[in-house]
Amino acid sequence: MSESKGRVLLAYSGGLDTSCILAWLIEQGYEVIAFMADVGQEEDFEAARKKALAVGAKKFFLEDLKREFVTELIYPALQANCIYENVYLLGTSLARPIIARGMMSVAEREGCDFVSHGCTGKGNDQVRFELAFYGLKPDIKVIAPWRIPAEFYHRFAGRQALLAYAAEKKIPVQQTAAKPWSTDENLFHISYEAGILEDPDTTPPADMWKLTTDPEQAPETPQRISIEFAAGLPVKVTVPDENKVYTDGVEIFLALNALARKHGIGRIDIVENRFIGVKSRGCYESPGATILRAAHVDLEGLTLDRNVRSLRDQFVTIELSRILYNGHWFTPEREFVVSSIPASQKTVNGVVRLKLYKGNVIIEGRSSDEGLYDEKESSMDELGGFEPTDTTGFIAIESIRIKKWAQANIRKGRVTV
Amino acid sequence: MSESKGRVLLAYSGGLDTSCILAWLIEQGYEVIAFMADVGQEEDFEAARKKALAVGAKKFFLEDLKREFVTELIYPALQANCIYENVYLLGTSLARPIIARGMMSVAEREGCDFVSHGCTGKGNDQVRFELAFYGLKPDIKVIAPWRIPAEFYHRFAGRQALLAYAAEKKIPVQQTAAKPWSTDENLFHISYEAGILEDPDTTPPADMWKLTTDPEQAPETPQRISIEFAAGLPVKVTVPDENKVYTDGVEIFLALNALARKHGIGRIDIVENRFIGVKSRGCYESPGATILRAAHVDLEGLTLDRNVRSLRDQFVTIELSRILYNGHWFTPEREFVVSSIPASQKTVNGVVRLKLYKGNVIIEGRSSDEGLYDEKESSMDELGGFEPTDTTGFIAIESIRIKKWAQANIRKGRVTV
Amino acid sequence: MSESKGRVLLAYSGGLDTSCILAWLIEQGYEVIAFMADVGQEEDFEAARKKALAVGAKKFFLEDLKREFVTELIYPALQANCIYENVYLLGTSLARPIIARGMMSVAEREGCDFVSHGCTGKGNDQVRFELAFYGLKPDIKVIAPWRIPAEFYHRFAGRQALLAYAAEKKIPVQQTAAKPWSTDENLFHISYEAGILEDPDTTPPADMWKLTTDPEQAPETPQRISIEFAAGLPVKVTVPDENKVYTDGVEIFLALNALARKHGIGRIDIVENRFIGVKSRGCYESPGATILRAAHVDLEGLTLDRNVRSLRDQFVTIELSRILYNGHWFTPEREFVVSSIPASQKTVNGVVRLKLYKGNVIIEGRSSDEGLYDEKESSMDELGGFEPTDTTGFIAIESIRIKKWAQANIRKGRVTV
Amino acid sequence: MSESKGRVLLAYSGGLDTSCILAWLIEQGYEVIAFMADVGQEEDFEAARKKALAVGAKKFFLEDLKREFVTELIYPALQANCIYENVYLLGTSLARPIIARGMMSVAEREGCDFVSHGCTGKGNDQVRFELAFYGLKPDIKVIAPWRIPAEFYHRFAGRQALLAYAAEKKIPVQQTAAKPWSTDENLFHISYEAGILEDPDTTPPADMWKLTTDPEQAPETPQRISIEFAAGLPVKVTVPDENKVYTDGVEIFLALNALARKHGIGRIDIVENRFIGVKSRGCYESPGATILRAAHVDLEGLTLDRNVRSLRDQFVTIELSRILYNGHWFTPEREFVVSSIPASQKTVNGVVRLKLYKGNVIIEGRSSDEGLYDEKESSMDELGGFEPTDTTGFIAIESIRIKKWAQANIRKGRVTV
């Protein structure tokens, strides 16, 4: 009997693809351990466990990573107002480092030299997973079947070939018709892409959206809540009309998810630029995160120094969003950029009051004891803080270089429009 | 009889403040010409003209600057997706350079050595106006009464003193009670600040909002429109259910304003950082601009190269927004930044389909013949453009430096979290 | 007789590698046209022509690209003060787009479907060439023998295998011993890398440096020159002690090269980060460019507005340098970034006086009629331009937000160090 | 007898200006305490003490701030490669926060409500000092006599008026003729500005330069040294030919100063942009800092990840340099930016070997045990780390978006140059 080629930890989903990959890896002579991460997706983990073992996995690990997902990835991204290409809140990107770290931890413990996944060869996730693996365990070897032409990619071109292989390997296949798009779900969001969505001019069907109520079907009556932040992190959510208060980090996030889902908040539909340079159409629902981001951005208006905000927006927000999207979490540049977040959030303390209504997150007020906002100082009606003549001096100084340039334009006959 | 101290061009609004300033300037020995710009605000210009002449203005000029406001300021800002501190679309900032240029043109023609305005000593507008004046006409002299302590500021402290002076000078005063906030309006937006809004935790009263329907009162039925862009500029707006098509730049903007107003689109409420470093609370309605920005950002997803978008976002969007906010339009840095816009918009051609509903601008689809998006290439279901093994190479190369860093961490015992 | 697989345009150098590639391509069934670019390197082009034809090339093209190299690549990079990782002036990077464009033009004319080159699989040049090819002619097919494992890479592993193949194919081989490093030369610079230089702690041997005199051997007597710029470009170089004046763009560059070489100016020795993420040690001599950059940077001090300079430094200089280094010249981001250069150089007019001495470029003075510098205004000894009280106002306004922050620190007990 | 107006802490230099200010403050009714900081300048502190007390100061404080100047300001700036407008190493800027903090500490201890200085109304130092005061002690009141028109500025216009006042107040005046420029000196550098230097085309006279040997007079024989860095900070300087090793932070800096001075290293002559927008000509000698910066930049090539370097250059280097120059050290943005430095310097460990020769700092080699540089991987001569086919994949992926753009250009007839 031939010896094993080695032990592989497989990122297992319970679906057709990774079940076939599991069987195929065994066929190729590997010993396979199946891995699942619970990052809040709706999933029958027990069924998946049984299936993996039935197909031939030596072991099955289910890791509950929800809390670290919220506290170690989602909250720093929130503190930095992360957003990709103006609209995407990075829900899939945020989960990948957590899952990859969970896998490397099991791979280490179980002595796996290899790791495998079912990502296709065109997407972002293969890159995000593999770069995260290498950043944590640079000697790990990756088996990406969908990028192995002869043995896998061409052999299993098309769903029929996979189904035939599943039948051959006695892999149970769900009878439900596949949806004409694919999804990725976790407690932060769900994504929809591929299939009928590949035509960017096709409006997503109403029944595609899974996490949020259609704004048109959302309640006619607005609901008011307040969120308290400490150092830029949500520490208390109050929902007066439900008589509820949440203070635990994970519970806060889940409560905001529930509220946002009810009010149809957090849907987007975009064409984005994948890391590999291909444009791709994606639809996303990020309910709770949409509320949290709006509230955090608003509170920063009241409590964050102008120059810190401006530098943070131009560097941390943009760069950390790119780092997340491109799967560069376990890199020195992530450590570098993230290290500046605490200093930017010291003063971001206070409460934001919000109204939720049919897709809208409406800010109704905010307060803080930081004192960076000073009613008297900003008031047009009274003096406070500085003299009007100070502004005359300020403008005089600010105009020095502008006047010089304007004089040069006039002398040189250069026209300013 | 004493000689005139010189000729002043006064930015006149028809209100109490600038009418008193008009009278006061005459009292100080100046000859005053009143100037009004029509930038789309709701205003009785004829009444203002009569009042100015009645108070003693030698001449009155009303300049219709709406078209240049839209085409020379609003549209470049739109092409660059300008936004200040994540939320403010810069409606007041955009109008100032146009008004200032109109004034300098009249000042030149009428031989005015001085220019005057009614801006307070704490706001942004004094800075925006004066820096614009100096950038166009560096030898102009500015009289800013609200920053002249003895002769004006202290003399007219409080509204009563102004009313008394108005009575003395026979300046007609509107009997309507002053609103407990102040506003600035033009065809792009209206702003509300000061008064009761100075407490950032006070929710603006429902009857404050003037330009847009309350989302809760907006139509129950969504409305669909499409906007066609050429080189990043809107060139056609189609409103099927009204059987309307708009192709003129100004008409497009006004039509979008009407649609957005109806559907409660474009309200914001923020605490922002003024140029002088004071935090200030402002509420704004920017109806049409909110739709246009959403559509433009979306079309860029489909048609703009990833790297151009990213560089443009990090530099042009942020810097031009700051330039606009701080009143630095007539400066070399504005010329520099704006000169890069056309190259960024070459490929931004196509159509965006939108649904307007109770405060929401929902993208329903977009199309373009630019071809930067390629269904086959992004499809997970078929090959196209590149081989899956290419991505293996890409990831291998991308991981080189990450592995080196991870190996150093391991060797040096540095922990990566 | 078998049909040709197609026509290949080969970037030919006359050396062993590309001669063997030429023979090998013919052996593989291609028809080969040899291409050489004269970008100012020291080379026996006629010998190369004979050799290429002797080995079997159907045709040989030598394109003189020196002028466009200087005017279309070097000068924009100079205007933008391009520099990679603080020290490298990008000499090789600058030549690549020019050569690639020359090749695509010949490929188009001669109906070549393929293009080939002798770059190794680890360097920057393969990337720079190929991305430039694709940016100009996206349907071109590239044959990169050093990245074809079975047929080429493994077959010709090591110099002996190549020499044997050369002997077999009757390719004449130069008897001179190969230097223990490799070089790339053009009129801008020469680079040295690989071989003994791969140990970054090995000091380059004195006889390696080819273009410049060792500073220790350079003249004891300094030499003074002046450079006049118009819109940021050098338009006149005056060398008083040689009684010489240069006004032609190419001649100016060559004259500065000669001066810098004599005075030992422009050597660097660095470890840089290649585009593929590998660190690499390189030594470079960029004589004339070093003088020009120092003079241009200095003149910008006198003539460029502060804010334009700052934005240009942070945006154009850094991004264009990266674009050049990574071979992204024929991309939309290059068009975007370069489009902003003219607006940044309008006022960069004037003369810089320099002293050249043993490796040093010493600025001795500069002048301009732009007037952005104003002796009176900057003088500590006299008034001019603004009142001292204006600065009091400026500081008062600048301190508003700082005081607020300091007060919050005190109130909250946060320590500032 | 009238009561004191309060207690003033005066930044005293021992010179004519601040001695007159001292007398004038007393004349105005203040009680004055004189403060001097020893930041390494050449100065007769004892004579200054006697003079201050003779003129009427109640107390005199001399604070030795050299160590904190080096470790708290100079070294972070070195780690971040700070440089202003490409050339200026910020010597004056770096000392200001240290001096201001020393003053605020004495002001607190001695119960001074006021602080005063002799800075003119046109320079950077007034801004730097005052913003630093406010950032530390927001309720401090500043008396800046050179910005008080009636009582001081106009009264003492011109040196004669000051001399007369000195005579009247029996202030001893040095008989030595004033130099035709002014200087600011500390252990980092000396600056020269004003006077004959105000003409930017005037070459500074040879006898102006005080800290460094003229390169033309520097030794004919080069000297070799090595600098070891740990986490980006110099921890050991070895001078073999002097048989010297330095390991203390301050001693390292002073030793490098001595070496650089001897070899004529660190002179610059520039026109810079002051914070107030005025252009100003300055000459500087920053001997040791010039060596240290060159060595640090070089070592980062070997030891710092490419992406960290690039982000740090674009963000920290540029922003911290501006923060320093503009006197924004005690601000939230400085805390924010500086907080990211440690993460950027973790791997900057190793040794740089240098040759010093007539104004040149020549890198001769560098080494590190970090391992981010890998000879095998970068070698053109052998495989290592990745396969040549990986690069083929990398280029294929990198070219995806470029080809799309090029195809669009061709289809649309847009010309790429």
Task: Please tag this protein with its features.
homotetramer, 417 residues, alpha/beta, Rossmann fold, 5-stranded parallel β-sheet, 5-stranded antiparallel β-sheet, 14 helices, 42% helix
Description of the structure:
- Chain A has 417 residues and is of the alpha/beta class.
- Chain A has 3 domains: 6-65 and 91-178, Rossmann fold, CATH 3.40.50.620; 183-304 and 347-367, Argininosuccinate synthetase, chain A, domain 2, CATH 3.90.1260; 376-412, no CATH class.
- Chain A contains 14 helices and 14 strands.
- Chain A has helices at 16-27, 45-55, 66-79, 91-109, 125-136, 149-154, 159-168, 249-262, 287-303, 306-325, 332-338, 341-345, 375-378, 388-412, and strands spanning 6-11, 30-38, 59-64, 114-116, 141-143, 182-185, 190-193, 223-230, 233-239, 244-246, 267-273, 279-285, 350-357, 360-367.
- Chain A has a 5-stranded parallel β-sheet with strand order 3-2-1-4-5, with helices on both faces.
- In chain A, a hairpin with a 4-residue loop joins strand 6 (182-185) and strand 7 (190-193).
- In chain A, helix 8 (249-262) crosses helix 9.
- Chain A is elongated.
- The first copy, chain A, starts with 5 loop residues before the first strand and ends in a 5-residue tail after the last helix.
- Chains A, B, C, D: Pfam families: Arginosuc_syn_C, Arginosuc_synth.
- Chains A, B, C, D: Pathway: Amino-acid biosynthesis; L-arginine biosynthesis; L-arginine from L-ornithine and carbamoyl phosphate: step 2/3.
- Chains A, B, C, D: One of its GO terms (molecular function) is ATP binding.
- Chains A, B, C, D: It comes from Lentinus brumalis.
- Chains A, B, C, D: This is Argininosuccinate synthase.
